Amino acid sequence: MKVLLYSEGLRFIEQSGLGKAIEHQKTALKSADVTYTTDINDTYDLVHINTYFPKSVYYAKKLKNKGIPIVYHAHSTKQDFRNSFRFSNVLAPYFEKWIVKSYNLGDVVVTPTHYSKDLLEESGVTAPIYPISNGIDLQYYESTPDMRESFRETYGFNKGDKVVMAVGHYIKRKGILEFVELAKRLPNYQFIWFGYTSMIEIPSEIQEAVKTELPNLHFAGYIPAEELRNAYAGADLFLFPTHEETEGIVLLEAMAMRQNILLRDIPIYSEYVANKHVYKAHDVDTFARTITKLFKGELPSLVDEAYEEVKKRDIKQIGRQLRSLYTQTIARHQSVMGDDPTC
Questions:
Q1: Is the pLDDT of residue 341 over 60?
Q2: How far is CA 232 from CA 23, 160, 275, 333, in A?
Q3: Which of 48, 148, 225, 255 could share a disulfide with 306, CB 3.0–4.6 Å?
Q4: Are 68 and 233 in contact (CB under 8 A)?
Q5: pLDDT over 80 at 36, yes or no
Q6: What angle do CA 296, 299, 301 make, to 5 degrees?
Q7: Percent of the chain scored above 70 by pLDDT?
């Protein structure tokens, strides 16, 4: 079995969660001894499509006509498209129609969670949907004391500083407005945001937030995976105030790095991270109170519980799940084609 991993415009998405998810796929398939190619002119038995851009849809239709089985990966929903870039809310209904049309080209659809599966079915995706996590490479995400020291030295934090970190694009959905407000309310703690989005792509209120000047607020921009790993090891809390996700790879990374975690209490995170794994909050007030209690030692660390939970999403397990899905999809496709008198 040989698989084509197709991702359109990779150089434009490689710094996003989607880009990370694609890299995770490659690692997962290698771990499961699945041969794959990224060359559409190569030979292959199945195509796994990760993007919904026009060329991706064109190739999906073309390959479907050739009788090649298709696994379409649903990384996005209408819900996580909203409150992202300029005009995203206006475009959201049209985006929904487009992705539904795209995903339904697949013999099967893969999406990271049962939560995103439910959203896709509500939107009109009729192809069979299989929830398979993006996974996490537990061997790579392993904290060491040197990483903590490197992070603190690089960003000028001393040993006594309490550091709150967040990761994401400069978009409203990620909770960046609340992150800035928390920095204002909690001046005794350091807040650092990793990630970047061009100013021309984001609304004025987000631009103003990013330009906020506070001695305890830092926007570090996009950094390589190795440096981000140091940040997970060197910060005192991973704050994830996101309003909507299909999974949240950065959350898996923080769990794997045994970092303390505080996230927004939204429906998706009732699925696989309970209050025994992470701390949750509803609004800025409860975020602020929980951060203060954690840093004063009034709440216990949950890092060991979170690590035990994220182990279920080890990249090797994801590789086995994808291999099984590919095998089943090829077999089912061949059975249907064999039964079709027009083939």
A1: no
A2: 19, 17, 20, 43
A3: 255
A4: no
A5: yes
A6: 105
A7: 96
Q: Tokens 């490659």 correspond to what residue?
A: 26
Q: How far apart are the first and last CA of the chain?
A: 22
Q: How far is CA 10 from CA 21, 71, 184, 224, in A?
A: 12, 18, 37, 16
User: Amino acid identity, residue 325?
Assistant: L
What is the distance between the alpha carbons of residues 104 and 129, in angstroms, rounded to a whole number?
10
Give the span between the Cα atoms of 292 and 181, in whole angstroms: 14
Q: pLDDT tens across 161-180, in order? A: 999 999 999 999 999 999 99
Tell me the pLDDT of the chain averaged across its residues.
Answer: 92
Residue type, 330: I
Q: Which single residue is written with the structure tokens 């890299």?
A: 23
- CA pair distance 151, 161, nearest whole angstrom: 12
- Among 160, 207, 202, 166, residue whose Cα is nearest residue 183: 166
**CA separation for the pair 46, 333 (Å, rounded):** 10
The Cα 277–Cα 304 span in angstroms is 8
CB atoms under 10 Å from CB of 64, counted, come to: 15
Q: Which of 85, 130, 142, 141 shows the shortest CA–CA distance to 103?
A: 130
List for the chain the helix, strand, coil content (%; round to 5).
50, 15, 35
Residue given tokens 């697949």 in the structure block:
106
- Alpha-helix residue ranges (DSSP H) falling in the chain: 10-13, 17-31, 54-65, 78-81, 88-103, 114-123, 145-155, 176-185, 204-210, 225-234, 249-256, 284-295, 303-310, 315-339
